[in-house]
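Hi R.,

Here's the chain you asked about this morning:
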Amino acid sequence: MNPRVGNNADPSSEESEDDELNIAGTHAGWLEPPQPQDLVLTLLADNVRNRLDKVWSGGLVRLLSEFGFTTGAARVALARLVRRDLIARSKEGRVVYYELTERTERLLKEGDRRIFTLGQDDCDDDGITVLIHTLHEEHRLERARLARRLRFLRFSPLQDSIWISAGNRQDDVLPLLVELNVAEYCSLVIGRMSADTRLQSLVERAWDLPALGKRYEEFVSLFGKYDGADVVDDATAFRTRTQLMHNFRQFPSLDPGVGKTLWPHPKSRAVAIDIFGRTYRDLAEPAHRHFDDVTSVVKAGVR
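And here is the predicted structure, written out as tokens:
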């Protein structure tokens, strides 16, 4: 079983936007090319949050063009994010600005917790959480939202309506069911595996562990060269750091978060986690410089 990749705490992934133009896949540096809305939120999370109150819209469009997106695709993505209350739009004179909403701040904070603690809280006992839902076709959007958020909580489907996770995830799941307004359709079971069965075999059926190991290897191959290396310029640092985050932030959705007794971790897992932590930190300063330079209304001569 090979679950669809996605950052489930990423609010941009809650709805399908199949009609958005995505040409980022023609550029190197992606394990899975992003959609424009994904990239906008990554840019804001990495460069605006905890640094700036808002950012010039024209600068965001210019930055998206560096990743291969057209002006039209960028502006459509921004408009849709506003419509979904993921970013807020304001004007000062003729200049348009965007900022993150409280809802997005909350979801990104949840995402940070999963991303930056990957590998630190692996479950190594025989505890298990099972979620069963009865959301039918008329609740298609609710099903999709629940699925994406469950993946980020390290759940994987055994069947369409049965999801499992190692360990006790009750404190994470119950608030999510209330937030998504689907609690009445869901049942949560917390327990332990029978002594006659093994959780390891269930984990192996629910997660595509060989594919995950290969993906960690691809990440190391793609970004290992930047670990401790001198970056040529600020623009390169910015693009590399953005791609680093976009690629790595998908791992919490794919990784079961279990210890080595349940899944003999490939060596590339620990290496990928180390590369991400160091490189994301080391590239922050030059990446922020480039972001600030491109989004400066003063330098752009905008009035």
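One quick note: Residues 1-9, 14-27 have pLDDT under 50 and may be disordered.

Cheers,
M.
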